[in-house]
């Protein structure tokens, strides 16, 4: 597989633009980012399947943060008035608030590996 001159990533031949000089051995992504393509040459970088898998990957990555934020909002809204459940909810939110950043940091390598695998 050839290597892009700009980003030094390996791609199949279908992901390279054609041309000589500055356009030689440049992938479509780098050419799009650096405005090397004419109007008619731009191709679709991400298929629908690839876009859905990337969206699902980011959703899995940031889902604990969304649940934690929603939990704190619910607790401060009306959850603190319930006798037994407010203590249980507060305990769960404190544990979640301590565990979420640690788990987010520990799963960074796996996330980047999966993202690199599905990036064209």
Protein topology:
Blueprint: H1 28-33, H2 48-77, H3 83-106, H4 108-118
Helix pairs in contact: 2-3, 2-4
Structure in words:
There is one protein chain. The chain is built from four helices and no strands. The protein has 120 residues and is mainly α. It has two domains: 45 residues, no CATH class; 71 residues, no CATH class. The mean pLDDT is 87.
Principal-axes shape call: elongated
Q: Find the count of extended strands (DSSP E, 2+ residues).
A: 0
**Major beta sheet summary:** none
Number of domains as seen in the coordinates: 2
**Average pLDDT figure:** 87
| Strand residue percentage | under 5%
**Percent range for helical residues?**
55-70%
Extract low-pLDDT stretches: none
Number of discrete helical segments: 4
As a whole number of angstroms, the C-alpha radius of gyration is 22 Å
* Termini separation: 13 Å
- Helices and strands, in N-to-C order? HHHH
**Helix-and-strand structural type:** mainly alpha
Features of this protein?
single chain, 4 helices, 0% strand
Concise account of the structure shown:
The chain has 120 residues and is an all-alpha fold.
């Amino acid at each position: 597989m050839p290597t892009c001159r700009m980003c030094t990533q390996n791609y199949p031949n279908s992901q390279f633009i054609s041309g000589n000089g500055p356009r030689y051995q440049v992938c479509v992504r780098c050419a799009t980012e650096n405005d090397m393509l004419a109007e008619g040459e731009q191709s679709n970088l991400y298929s629908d399947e690839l876009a859905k898998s990337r969206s699902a990957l980011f959703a899995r990555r940031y889902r604990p943060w969304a649940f934690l934020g929603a939990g704190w909002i619910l607790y401060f809204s009306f959850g603190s008035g319930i006798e037994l459940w407010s203590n249980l909810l507060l305990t769960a939110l404190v544990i979640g608030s301590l565990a979420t950043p640690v788990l987010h940091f520990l799963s960074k390598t796996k996330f980047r590996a999966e993202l690199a695998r599905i990036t064209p």
